[in-house]
Design goal:
Shape: globular
Number of helices: 15
Strand content: under 5%
Oligomer: single chain
Structural class: mainly alpha
Largest sheet: 2 strands, antiparallel
């Protein structure tokens, strides 16, 4: 019997992502204005302000910037993890036949950009940033494709969402494996104990969310102190939240519904506000043609386009999957361009990649330029094929 799927959470995710993408653009503009005005020093001081509390021998005092990048972004990753789990169980990734094309396309969209960056930055001080052009920003990409309305098949929007979700999973694994410097195993052991408790709750089908969210705070704390980036806690917590295969709202769908608004309307805009405060300097223009800048821009725009289109073509030719309904190869190429909008996740990885502040700033500027190029050209390209018969494989 076919599963009856509650699509409301996905609709909410898509809708809030569209509006959230527009809000992100506004916050980027505000952040850039602040960074190039007389307010920049005050804003930088605010981000560097310590905030928190101490309890017993434990210290919970971090800078405002750390709270945003480590704590609030863990909630963002919790939402991403919930979406990944639901797609794996009942959505576009729930079977090999359904998942093959977006998974293979996402794989191409990660490997080709990383390879391009690696080639351009091999044996340089910026070689560690190879993970930056691998990422696709779900909110921005969905916002752009939604602006196209009926110019593109509805199936293409679902395909882009599935591809971006797989892409995020890949970025999460890259962060966990390659951007962790030192591991404190006693904290990791305690995190494992909390995770085991959450899995027990899941096994016995415990449904109240507080049984997961309260231990989830401790899971975040232990992972944060283990040396592994704390945002991984959000994904691990998400994978323990119970779901179901019928049209009754599950705890997973309930939590996803509750988080959509705060994540898309508050957390991601705050992240953009805090992390795109780029003070423009003439040296930055030269940075765009440095190995770092070229690696990011070429990787995000050309690498994503080539990777998504080429790997999709291979998957179809090898009969691993089929094109989305009413979509042709031009649509896939245009979608590959939109996948080059790396923004939020790319900036996040750049913060983990470099200790040199100038490298971080140049990376942010290159990501901003690449994302604008990918978004504009992808939009125009997809708009130009409106009304034309799709090219069949």
């Amino acid at each position: 019997m076919a599963k009856i799927i509650n699509l409301q959470a996905f609709k909410d995710f898509l809708r809030s992502g569209q509006i959230g993408g527009i809000l992100l653009m506004v916050c980027v503009a505000i952040s850039l204005f602040i960074a190039n005005s007389s307010y920049k020093d005050g804003f930088s001081a605010l981000l560097a302000t310590d905030f928190g509390f101490t309890f017993g021998s434990g210290s919970y005092v971090f800078t405002v910037s750390a709270w945003i990048n480590d704590a609030l972004m863990a909630v963002f990753f919790l939402l991403v993890g919930l979406e990944i789990k639901r797609e794996l169980i009942e959505g576009e990734l729930s079977s090999i036949k359904k998942a093959s094309l977006p998974v293979v396309a996402a794989l191409g969209g990660m490997l080709v950009p990383a390879f391009i960056y690696f080639i351009l930055n091999k044996d340089t001080a910026t070689a560690s940033g190879w993970g930056i052009p691998m990422a696709t920003d779900i909110a921005f990409a969905l916002a752009i494709i939604s602006m196209l309305g009926k110019s593109v098949p509805a199936s293409l929007k679902i395909f882009l969402a599935a591809l971006a979700i797989v892409d995020d999973l890949g970025a999460i694994l890259v962060i966990a494996i390659f951007y962790t410097n030192e591991v404190h195993f006693h904290y990791l052991l305690m995190a494992g104990g909390v995770l085991a408790l959450l899995l027990v709750f899941n096994f016995f089908k415990v449904k109240p969310l507080y049984f997961y969210l309260i231990p989830g705070v401790f899971l975040w704390y232990f992972i944060h102190h283990s040396g592994i980036h704390a945002t991984i806690a959000g994904v691990l917590l998400a994978l323990t939240i119970p779901t179901n295969s019928n049209d009754t709202e599950s705890p997973l769908e309930k939590l996803e519904h509750l988080l959509n608004g705060p994540v898309n309307y508050f957390i991601m805009p705050i992240f953009a506000l805090a992390n795109t405060n780029i003070t423009f300097q003439k040296e930055m223009l030269g940075g765009l043609i440095s190995p770092l800048g070229l690696g990011i821009i070429t990787g995000l725009f050309a690498g994503k386009t080539i990777g998504v289109a080429l790997f999709s073509w291979l998957a179809v030719k090898l009969k691993l999957g089929t094109l989305p309904s009413q979509a042709g190869w031009k649509h896939i190429i245009g979608l590959g361009m939109l996948a080059g909008i790396g923004f939020t996740m790319s900036i996040f990885i750049s913060l983990l990649s470099f200790s040199d502040e100038m490298h971080v700033t140049e990376a942010k500027f290159a990501i901003l330029c690449a994302s604008v190029i990918a978004g504009l050209i992808g939009f125009v390209f997809l708009k130009s094929i409106k009304g034309k018969a799709p090219v069949k494989a």
